[in-house]
Structures are given as C-alpha cells and as structure tokens.
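REVIEWER CHECKLIST
Item 1: Sequence provided? yes
Item 2: Single chain? yes
Item 3: Sequence as submitted:
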Amino acid sequence: MGIALVAAFFVLFILGFPVIYAILLPSAAYIYIEGLPLGLLAQRITYALDSFPLVAVPIFIFAGNLMNLAGVAERIFHFANVLVGRVPGGLAQVNIFSSLIFSGMSGAALADVGGLGRIEIEAMKKRGFDVPFSAAVTVSSAIVGPIFPPSIPLIVYGSVATVSIIQLLIAGIVPAIICVIFLMVTTYFIAQKRQYPRSARWPTFAEVMFALWPALPAILAPVLMVGGMMAGWFTPTEAASVTVLYILAISHFYYRELTWTHLKNATITTIRSTGAILMICASAALYGWILAVEQIPQQFASLVLGGTTDPIVLLIIVNVIFFIVGMFLDSTTATLLVVPIIAPPLVAAGIDPVHLGILTIFNIMIGIITPPMGLALFLISDIANVTMKQLLKALLPYYFPLLATLAVITFCPDLILWLPGLMR
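Item 4: Structure as written out by the authors:
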C-alpha cells in the first residue's frame, strides 16, 4: 500500500492535478481502504499545524511583503549600485549583490524575483544589457534568499526534521556568501568578454554614505534578527515578530511611507501565501504519517544503507535525489514529502542534520531554476517577457557557479557548520 501511495501521487501529479490533490486523494483513499475512521484526516491535519516553529512562516512572509510595499527594494538597489556598480558587469553585479541584501528580508526565491526582479531587469535593459542575460542574472541570484536567514524553506525543513531552526538559519550565511562570490566572479568574466557597461568611476566615501543612509534601516533588519538569535535573545518565531515590529517602525517613522493601504495589501498577500503553504504542510503531514505507518522510510533506509554507509557517497545520492525532486516540486512540497523519508537513514549514518538541511534546500533551489518545471523560470520569463529558450541559453553559464557552491556545501561540511558550531 505504501508503494501504491507513492505511485498514485506521481501519477496524479503527472496528469496535471494540483499538488495538494495529488497528496490528499491517495491519502484519503488509503484511510478508506484500510477501514480507518475518516476523522483521522482532520486529526492529522490539525496536529500538523499545531507547531510553534511554523508560526514563523506567515510572520516572515508578512515582513517581506511590508518591505516590498514600503519601497525598500528601490533603496537597496540604489545603494548596491553605488557600492559595486563600478565592478565589471555593472548593474549585473548590483543585481547579485542586491539579492544578498534583500534575501535578508524576504526569505524566499520567488519573493526576491518578484520584489527586485522588475526593478533590476528594467534598469539593466536601459543601460544596454541583453534582456535574457538580465533575467538569467536575476533568477540565478534569487536562490540565495532561501539559504540566507530568514529562510522559509529552512524553517519548514527544521520543523519537519526536528532540527534546530536557529542553527539551520545561521548555517546558511556562509554558503549564501560563497554563492554570491561565485556568481559575481562568473559575471565578471562574462561582462569582460561582452563589454557590458558599468559605472564611469568608483564612488567617493560621501556618495557611499549618502546612498547608505536611506537603505541602512533595511540592511539592519537581518542583522538584528540574526544577532538576536545568536545571542539567545529570541527564537526564530520570536525573531520574526521582532522583525515585523522593526519594519513597521522604520516604515512609519523613518521612511514615512507606511499607509493603511500598504498594511491591507501586505496582510491580504500574506494570508494567500500562508494559506497555500500551510495547506500543503497539513496534507503532506498526513501523507508522511501514512508512509511512516507503511514503513517506507525504513525500507528506504535498508535500500540506501544496504548499498553503502560512506557519508560522501550518501551525500552524492542525496544531491541527485533532491536535484531531480526540485525540478518538479516547489520547495515546501519537496521538503515535506521527501525529507521524512531520506533524512532519518542519513542522520543515522553520521551525516550532520544541519549540514543535510543546507544541502537539501540548496539542491531544491537549483531545481526551481531547472527545466522542465522550474517555478522561478516561468516567473522570470513572464516578468522579463523572454522565451524559455532565450532564458535557458543565457542561464547556462550560471549553473557552473551554483554547482560549484553545491560542491562546497557537499564536501566541506566544516566550513558550513563552524558558524552554528559557535552556538553549541
């Protein structure tokens, strides 16, 4: 029955059913066939959502929406332009650097694409950059968001795998910075070859300070959050609430652009996004419970550990699995469905669960910009108004720095874990 349940999900998904139906229909059928009480459906779904760490998800989404509506994205982009616009690649480098700063508030790749994407692509287009190249830079740098705190996918992973969310969030800082460096180096060589424009001169100290002043409160938001968690002042969920209060304060008293309309629109958008995520969380928890009853994780553990117990080989297997999964499923669904099966045997084999979490989420993020069903590809294609063929051709060079980052994450766990190790 467990294998039939997994097969049913993939059949329904391939046939075009929405993910939540592809999860719920086989689960409901299993409960009916096994003669279990139908009330179990409601019980398991309610139990799944009774989770304190998951409260951070809607709050961080709300924080990101507030930042978008308060015009913070434009200020961040302007500051990044002043700071790194002279580097070969010009606005392309600004695009990547902005993603690192903005990721400290949005926590989601699609939020980065939607929040900064239009601004970045339009600015690059006016400066003479190819639109497909602009779109490729935007979408490749956007995947930094989900591994840099605050990260909604890492919060979901920590909730599912019962791993310290604080350590997961802190562990994402180093690989995010490494990824940005690799992307900027790649852009440097592409820009040199194609002679893309850049700023005429390096900024003066006064110009940097003048651009920094409007963006500073926004930049300090992730510093406040990460510093507070590392100091033990608050949990990730409490950090999310503190961040929202901070954003409300700077939007009203510093930027003076907060209106009731902004609050209303941010709230509505948050409710819609949260509803979609938590519906998947609830249905996936039911699905995962049935898989546990059918001992699918144990069977998978026997299959994997029966072949090898070498941690490096196991990590390579994980890379392949999640890379493929990420091409078809969004990060929340992939995490909720696959992690409960894969994580236990790997942790039992000696792989650090925090290391595994960063590896898992980064793999999935590469998947969302990989055909055939990468969600970010369709979003950026619509924003930039380019064909998928044009986008993929321009995106091809950027898979190399992303895969190089993945290799660092895979084979250098000490580099990834040293920062969260300071908290242990």
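Item 5: Key structural point noted by reviewer: The radius of gyration is 22 Å.
Item 6: Recommendation: ____
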